[in-house]
Structures are given as structure tokens and as C-alpha cells.
Amino acid sequence: MTIALAALLITHVITGIVAIGIHNVVLMHLLKRTPNYVFISRIAWSAVALFLVSWATSAYYYVTYYGTAVKPRILAGDMPFAHAFFMETKEHIFLVLPFLAISIALCTSYLRTNPDDALRKSTAFLTLVALCIGAATAAAGVIVSGSV
Amino acid sequence: MAIYELLVIMHVIGTVLGVGAATFAEIHYTRFNSDDIITDDERRTLATTYTVMRTGLFLLVISGFGFLLYLRLTEYTDLLTSATFLAKMTVVGVLVGNALLLQARIMPLAIGAAVSLTSWYAALVLGVLRDTNASYFEILLYYAVAVVLVALSLRWIRARMHGPAKAKV
């Protein structure tokens, strides 16, 4: 693996994990009785930016390196299901995450000027869904990495 | 090598902050709540302790994924599928889930406190052991038993320390 590809992989993982962590913070604050929507919307938009960076770097890594150098090794190894199930699922579910993050950020921005308890609860639920998908994606990444 | 040592230091600091804060959160809460009244000053002390605990969790997760990257890039990936590592990941996931349930007031405080305290110590022990002969499910069974024992111990300690209720000033 070249240094550039290693840097892309590092960027993909770190930005993805920080973005998932930010969604965790967003959810914790949305569960408060009187949330600070200015703070929540700012960090929600930073999660969007981080997910897009994580998405772009992983896409380049996947297309130029994973398919030719990593995937054959996994399929020939002891845990072929790591690609056949976990990576195949991860690469499709991960596509949803940036759009979920944008929806959460838009809702929190709206809540800044129009506080609404029903929307707060719905946004909290959406953030919980994004958090669960993010955590599952990260766990799948660990299994894929461990099967190389 | 320098990056690996940096990750180890970050991981140890995260664990120390988390385990220490979880321990003192329990000690403070038990003492402060012994008269059924938590004053503003006591609330601020607890809030600071929880902030330290969350900082520890953040450092633990970031350095943990740093290790993942290090092991992946150095092609030493056997550890990533070991039962101990996967059990530790599960325990950290339980820690995050427990914090969310406590924040949403879905989890009763007595159970949530026991889960938090046991999970932090379990993460510490699993990190020190690195690899054991026990399977993933065996480790989780020991962990579940430990949660029950800690919950019962905390209940007993709180009952012993609980003084007569005072009128709110």
C-alpha cells in the first residue's frame, strides 16, 4: 500500500469515527429538556462535512486498491464472509449515512429558529438510527480489517 | 513505533480517566444522595465527574480505532478478530448505549450506575489481559454476572449509607 492510500484509509476511519461520535453528542443534547440548538446544529453540520470526507476517501481507496489487492486475499482466507457479507453490506448501508447526517443537520438548523418538541423527538430518533448504522458500519470495518 | 507508543499513552490516559471518573461518580453520588438531597454544588461536582468520564471514553474510542489502523497497516490483524478484543468492543458499545439510555431517563439509575462501573472495569481488565482462552460468549457471561454482583453491592452500600431524609432548605 502506498503512503497516499494509507493516508486515505486513516482519514476515512478517523473522520468516520469522529462523525459517529458527534452524532452521539447530538443525540445526548437532543434528549435534554432544553437543548442548545445553536450548538447542536453547528456540530451536526460538522458531522456532515466529516461523513462526506470519510465517504470520498473510502470511495477512492475502495475503487483503486481494495478490489484488486485486499478483496482477493479476504476471499481466499479463513473468513471470506468478511467481504461477502460484511463489506457488501457496509458499502451499501454507508451510502445512506451522509444523507441521514444532512437530514439531521437540516432539522437542527430549523429547530434553532422554530423550537418544536415533536420535531426534537423525531430528530433524536433519526439521530439514533444514524448512530446505530454508524456503529454497525464501524464494527463491520473492524471485521473486514481483521480478516485480511 | 512512536505512533504506537503515542496510541498506548492515549489509550491508557482514556482508561485511567474513565475508570477513575466512574469510580468517583459512584462514590460522590452515594455520599451526596445519602440524605436524599443533591445540592447545586454537589450537582456541579457530579457534572464535572461525568465530563471527565466522557473525555476518557472519547480518548479510549479514538485511540482504539487508532490501534485498528496501526494493526491493519502493519498487517498484524489477528488481534482484531480475537474474542477478547471483540468482547472489549462490545463492552465499550454497552457503555455508550448505557449513557444514552440514562440521558433519556429510560434506564433506572441504580442499574445504569452498575452497568457503567462494571463496563469501565471490564474494559480495563480485557485491555490488560489482551488474549484469554475464554470464548466471546464466555467473557460476556462473566461480564453479565459481574454487572449483577456490582448492582447488588452498590444497593447494599447505598442502603448502609442512607441516612434519615432531611427537609429541603
Structural notes for this entry:
The complex is a heterodimer of chains A (148) and B (169). Chain A is mostly helical and 148 residues long. Chain A has one domain. Helices cover 86% and strands 0% of the residues of chain A. In chain A, helix 1 (3-30) packs across helix 2 (37-76) and helix 1 (3-30) packs antiparallel against helix 5. The model of chain A has no long low-confidence stretch (mean pLDDT 89). By secondary structure, chain B is mostly helical. Chain B has one domain. Chain B is built from five helices and no strands. Chain B has helices at residues 2-32, 40-73, 83-103, 109-129, 136-161. Classes of the chains: A mainly alpha (148), B mainly alpha (169). The interface between A and B is medium-sized, with 26 and 23 residues.
What is the oligomeric state here? Answer: heterodimer
Helix/strand/pairing category of chain B: mainly alpha
- What's the number of structural domains of chain A? 1
Net shape of chain A: elongated
Largest interface: which pair?
A-B, 26 and 23 residues
Approximate helicity band of chain A: over 70%
What does the average pLDDT of chain B come to? 86
What does the main sheet of chain B amount to?
none
How far apart the termini of chain B lie comes to 58 Å
